[in-house]
Amino acid sequence: MYSKKRIDFWKKVASLVSVSLLLLAWYCGSIRISDNQSDMVDQLLINGELLTQIHPRLYQGTSANELSPVEFIGLGSGIGYGGITEVAVTVSSQGDIQRVAVLSSKDTSSYLDKVLQSNLMEKILGENIKVSLEIDGVSGATVSTNALTDAIKQAADSVRVQVFGFSMLENEEPVSHFRWLDLMAIAMFTMAILVNKTRHRKKSMFNWAILLSSMCVFGFYSSSLFSSSTMGILISGAWFSGLGNYTSLILLSLVILYIIVSNRNVYCTSLCPFGATQECLAKLGNAKTTSLTNFFFEWFPRGLLLTTLCLGLYFRNPASFSYEPFGIMFGMIGSIYLFVLTVLAIVTSLVVKRPWCRTLCPMNPMTDFIRFNRQWFKSILNKQRAKREIMEANQMADVAVKSNEVSK
Amino acid sequence: MFPQSTLLDPLFWMVLGAIQVLVFTGANQWAKESQLGMNWWKWSVVGFWWLSFILTIAGAFTLLGENEGNAGWYVLGFVGTLLVIGGAAILKVLVLLKPNHP
């Protein structure tokens, strides 16, 4: 209907608009959060108290009539699934914990809700910070619990150091965040590349072996497959200050790098745990392959991913806006709507091959975006090279003409 | 299933009962037409699957009727999905074990 040139033009416009929207969302988000923290700390005060910042991580609440401090508010942070979790702890002048509030969290809301519903924060109220704080873990949300626990301990230590003159916090090595799963991600990605390149007659069998291993390791065991929230974490730079789990980010970075270098996506065919689940179900139900080349199925997932990423950047919490069924499938964590979506995707997989991959998966828009821009960049380079070659040829011709004239 | 309705509840259970009658009368005919070569253990597996399926629907919809919406949907979605996958697996086994399967 439309010429290829015209479609390409509109794709270039869409690509530039997408990047601009992401930058705008990131900028607006930074304006939004700049005063957020001090406002929230103000709200922790009892009416009539005056708040003074005495250290970057410590506030002092003084009664309006007296000059001696009534309570202290310590700030602390811990590293969660999607980045830093910040907590404020209100401590009395005797060292008793009076209130605890989560200032910000980049974790998936379902995980954070699970931790908060376990009354983890209520259990430490009244405890004295002069002795070590004992906080119980919450199974099924270990990373979020650790983030909150570390943040509370750090906030308590801010008060402890400045008011009571001693610390009880142990310094943690940054290397301890890297785990064997991260190495496994690199190893399995390398294997996936090798399998995709090989012409061995048992290539299909090797591919199945990697797919099933990936489904067990990155799916059911660790639920560390990447999603739109990982993409949001990557572009927001939240990973720079630390993450509770780097495996999904490593996988995503490797996939992007490999698409840029070789224009091929090995993740979907050989590594994706949800893809593996759909493949297994397709085998079970003799599912048929269908191709969806409709304009809607091409552009709707792109718009959905862009909206998700923009919201994630604006609210500085990409994990809250992911819409994939991965959390329900491999961890039974997520809202009822995602549960319904997961059930639909699973049941449909019995009759249609990879229905999720063909419709809403964010991997396709991401791959299309990288491929298109790679091609665009390459064509600009080629045009410049061609221009340079023509100019060089013209210069050579001029030199030859001049030398001919001189010799004559 | 329908907490605020006096009419829809009995209708729902009547439809579920009618489906039972149709399934029980039609299953043998369907197995014969499909030439599945059913024997005692195959019927036991299929019967157990059907019983589980019906109990899941009944259980989930009872929960919905008791205003336990989330629990009902989770039972239906989680156990129901597992049973649908199980059903597909059983069908595959039955087809593979057909007496004249190539």
UniProtKB/TrEMBL annotation, chain A:
Keywords: Membrane, Transmembrane, Transmembrane helix. It comes from the Bacteria. InterPro entries: 4Fe4S_Fe-S-bd, FMN-bd. The chain crosses the membrane at residues 178-196, 208-226, 238-261, 295-315, 327-352. The keyword Transmembrane helix applies. The keyword Flavoprotein does not apply. One of its GO terms (cellular component) is membrane. It holds the Pfam family FMN_bind. GO terms for molecular function: FMN binding. Residues 80-159 form the FMN-binding domain. This is 4Fe-4S binding protein. It comes from Shewanella atlantica. The lineage of its organism: Bacteria, Pseudomonadati, Pseudomonadota, Gammaproteobacteria, Alteromonadales.
TrEMBL record, chain B:
Keywords: Membrane, Transmembrane, Transmembrane helix. The chain crosses the membrane at residues 12-31, 43-65, 71-97. It comes from Shewanella atlantica. This is Tetrachloroethene dehalogenase.
